[in-house]
Amino acid sequence: MENSERKTGVPYWKQIVALLCAGWVTIWIYRSALPPVYPQINESLGGGVSGAALGSISSFYFLGYVIMQIPGGLLVDKVGKKNVLIPGFILFAISAFLIAQASSITMIYLGSVLAGLGSGSFYGAAYSLTNQNIPAKRKSFSTAIVNSGSAVGSGLGLILSSFLVAQVGLPWQTMMYLTVFLAICMLISFVVIVRSNKDDVAFVKKEEKDEDNEEATIGEENKLSFSSLFRPKMLAAYVLYFATCYAYYMIVTWLPNFLSAERGFEGAAIGFSSSVVAFASIPGALIFSRLADKFLDKKLHFIVVLEILAAIMLVATVSVTSQTVLLIALILYGFLGKLGVEPIIISWLGENAPQVGVGTTLGVFNFFGMMSSVIAPALTGYISDVAGSQVMGFYISVILLIVGTALFALSNISQFKKKSAS
């Protein structure tokens, strides 16, 4: 609302950045809160729930999340960001409450799917807001701040869940009630801050735009079509994002087990070493996105170089024998990997998508990325069962990164040449 800017004196785009960062914190607190308390959930359900059944809680959540990506993006373009954010978080809050009341694993599954559908509406709306309201020279850095909410929320969810439930002894449902409270706070914030008109595009002065944005401006005048949504450079971006997310979700799911079973890490060292990926990503995202905003004509170069370096760090993770060197490789992967490069990719995507179809484009983009969250954990587990090691799972993620990066670079070869010649 315009009134919020008048009252606070804070520019609307800065309010959006803070709001969306808080949105990711809320979503990721929920995402990371349940796995640490699976034993308590099992106990509350009378025992006898298998590990696979408990692990499926997350699978059902991501199923709902993935299903919502394309419909959510279409709704953003059709009815507006605010009209998608508010119903989505209402469903998210209701779902967390249902999970807290669950008396069976089936009821938890149902709540998880609904939670995925509700929070799945956030991505397209959030990055439509950033792409349309943040000045070009601040877009990548601001998107990195928004993205940092996922790392903060993930860490808070793990810490709070472990401390409040496992150590203090509170019921596991406490984390779900906390999610409900945070979701309600977000709903109030959406109502107060987000502007109502669906065509809310912040005015960015012409002098703030580089000549390099002219191509994006021309593209914004075109209407969204299937051909524009899946033209070679966009399709290559989807493949690149799938590969980027594949590596990340493989690491998030299997790294603790890999460190314990194959590299000799024990006790607290496992948790610490696994968490460094998330925490190292925050400074990486902020630094590289700041540089990408400073050198607007080098975004493609940043994306390609960061993806290649991330692949190298994954190779180092499984090939070194020293625990110290392995830990350094993990820190560097977090610094260079998904959360470091993602804000730059999203910024590039916003510049190359038709303005009338930003929400839909983001929905398709994230659909491809989040498909990896369904495939990577299961495929790596299967490889581990067959081969007796997760090493091949790491190498598959490296191959995907190299192939995805090569396709993305080739699809933008003319743009690379144009930047080099200018």
Short description:
It is a multi-pass membrane protein. It contains 19 helices and no strands.
Draw up the topology in text.
Layout: H1 2-8, H2 12-33, H3 38-44, H4 51-79, H5 82-100, H6 105-120, H7 122-133, H8 139-167, H9 173-193, H10 214-220, H11 226-229, H12 232-263, H13 268-294, H14 299-319, H15 323-336, H16 338-352, H17 358-387, H18 391-411, H19 413-421
Q: What can you tell me about this protein's structure?
A:
- This protein is mainly α and 422 residues long.
- The protein folds into two domains: 192 residues, MFS general substrate transporter like domains (Growth Hormone, Chain: A, Up-down Bundle), CATH 1.20.1250.20; 206 residues, MFS general substrate transporter like domains (Growth Hormone, Chain: A).
- Helix content is 81%, strand content 0%.
- The chain has 19 helices and no strands.
- Helix 2 runs parallel beside helix 8, helix 12 packs parallel to helix 17 and helix 14 runs antiparallel to helix 18.
- The chain is globular and about 60 Å long.
- About 5% of the residues have low confidence.
The level 1 CATH classification of the largest domain is: Mainly Alpha
C-alpha Rg, in Å?
A: 21 Å
The succession of helices and strands, N to C, reads: HHHHHHHHHHHHHHHHHHH
The rounded distance between the terminal residues' Cα atoms is: 41 Å
Q: Would you count the extended β strands for me?
A: 0
Count of individual domains: 2
Low-confidence stretches: 201-222
User: What is the beta-strand fraction?
Assistant: under 5%
Which structural class matches the secondary elements? mainly alpha
Give the proportion of residues in helices. over 70%
- Using the alpha-carbon principal axes, give the shape: globular
Number of helices: 19
The oligomeric status of these chains comes to single chain
Q: What fold name stands as the CATH topology of the largest domain?
A: Growth Hormone, Chain: A
Question: What is the CATH-assigned architecture of the largest domain?
Answer: Up-down Bundle
Q: Quick one: biggest sheet? A: none
Q: What is the average of the pLDDT values?
A: 84
CATH homologous superfamily of the largest domain - what is it?
MFS general substrate transporter like domains
Pfam families: MFS_1
Membrane topology: Multi-pass membrane protein
GO molecular function, one term: transmembrane transporter activity
Protein name: MFS transporter
